[in-house]
């Protein structure tokens, strides 16, 4: 029984950290695009990408592991909210990891090779869009879990 409670605590802590940090990171990058300085934009994106790789991906993996562990404690007749969370959440976490790792690296390389501020800013805005979409999906998942629609 305690193992499920500890797992739930770690799960909620990691989701809250992931949600808050993703939101904060999008705001941080938005401020860098307003600076109209190419070096600031490049450094901000490099910093945000590094934070994603060192903090957000391990946090999302912990969310996946603890979520799967808690799901194993349910019987075969899972309610709808749990099925949505299980399936959509797992796919979202794997997609987040792949997109942030691969596409984020590609965007960072494009910003470093970019010659103009407007091109760099538009690339950073794509990264911001990915972060905002991630927050939206997290909100949808949190809605399904908290309302427990059956």
Description:
With 150 residues, this protein is mainly alpha-helical. The protein has one domain (2-147). 88% of the residues lie in helices and 0% in strands. It has helices at residues 2-34, 38-71, 80-113, 117-147. The protein is elongated and about 55 Å long.
Write out key terms for the chains shown:
elongated; 4 helices; single chain; about 150 residues; about 90% helix
Largest sheet geometry = none
Which structural class matches the secondary elements? Answer: mainly alpha
| Span of the ends, CA to CA | 24 Å
Multimer state: single chain
Uncertain regions spanning at least 5 consecutive residues: none
Residue fraction in strands: under 5%
Helix content, binned percent: over 70%
Report the average pLDDT across residues. Answer: 87
> Number of folding domains?
1
How many H/I helical runs?
4
């Amino acid at each position: 029984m305690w193992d499920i409670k500890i797992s739930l605590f770690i799960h909620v802590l990691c989701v809250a950290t992931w949600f808050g940090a993703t939101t904060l990171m999008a705001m941080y990058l938005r401020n860098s695009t307003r600076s109209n300085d190419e070096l600031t934009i490049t450094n901000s994106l490099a910093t945000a990408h590094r934070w994603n790789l060192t903090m957000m991906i391990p946090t999302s993996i912990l969310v996946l592991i603890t979520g799967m562990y808690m799901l194993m404690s349910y019987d075969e007749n899972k309610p709808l909210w749990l099925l949505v969370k299980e399936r959509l959440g797992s796919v979202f976490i794997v997609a987040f990891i792949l997109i942030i790792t691969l596409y984020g690296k590609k965007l960072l390389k494009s910003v470093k090779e970019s010659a103009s501020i407007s091109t760099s800013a538009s690339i950073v805005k794509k990264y911001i869009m990915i972060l905002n979409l991630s927050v939206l999906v997290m909100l949808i998942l949190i809605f399904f879990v908290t309302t427990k629609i059956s």
